[in-house]
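Hi F.,

I've been meaning to write this up properly since the lab meeting, where we talked about keeping a consistent format for the predictions we share between groups. The idea is simple: the sequence comes first, exactly as it goes in, then the structure tokens exactly as they come out, then a line or two of notes. No screenshots and no reformatting. I'm using this chain as the first example so we have something concrete to point to.
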Amino acid sequence: MVILYVSRKKLFLFAGLLIISVISLIIAVSAYDRVITVMRPQREIPIYCVDTTEKKISITFDCAWGADDIPDILETLNQEGIRATFFLVGKWAEKNPGMVKLMHQHGHDVGNHSYSHLKMSTIGRDRIKAEIEKCNNTLASLTGAKTDLFRAPYGDYNNLTVSVARELGCYTIQWDVDSLDWKPEITPESIISRVINKTKPGSILLFHNDTKHTAEVLP
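Output, unedited:
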């Protein structure tokens, strides 16, 4: 059997080197974590709902295509004393200026749904900015008011979309309850059941105009 004798001086030296190595490893791992955090920024999250216990919700409509059912929708909301938010595509607003003014006159919020209804995650910063700014200008010219609400078409967004909207003074608004009223095969009963079962205090409900049943299910 071989027995190794190590002097106390060498033992202390070895222990010191070991401690230094461990400390260096900890520092290296910590620095690596910081680098990863910088390289992978946190995801920008829009507003999906409001944190509240009050029995209040937000009813929103996305308007991008036709406008035939808008008078019926506005009439129902007016009869029930409900104020909603209409997210309008700029091109739609230009084609239906009377409807935009009517929404505003009835006390509803008019929000930005981009100018051309493009998928925001597929375009660059300059185009995103142009889409939001042009729609903002269009809406302001019709209502005389500036909006600070933006909803990305198709609910499609990325970090760049949210950050550009914020730079332009807009909150990006999503939803936590989708009525799915845009689906051709959905029934009025399915829309009502879906909305009732999923809605909670602070929910943001998504509807669309120019659908088969939306105006019908609102009352």
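Notes:
Residues 8-39 form the longest helix (32 residues).
The beta strands are 58-63, 85-88, 109-112, 149-150, 171-172, 177-178, 204-208.

If this format works for you, I'll send the rest the same way.

G.
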